[in-house]
Design a protein that fits this description.
The chain is built from no helices and 4 strands.
Length: about 45
């Protein structure tokens, strides 16, 4: 599943979902790299 996270004040990363941490952050994989950040919430139409 593709997920988007925010890793800085204005930097976002989109990658494959790997895991969710206890503090509410999630881990996504982009190629060989793993990135941790706050998930971007989905908006309903």
């Amino acid at each position: 599943m593709l997920r988007t996270i925010v890793v800085g004040s204005c930097v976002s990363v989109q990658g494959t979902f790997e895991s969710q941490l206890e503090n509410g952050k999630i881990v996504v994989r982009v190629g060989e790299g793993l990135f941790t950040g706050k998930p971007v919430l989905r908006k309903s139409a």
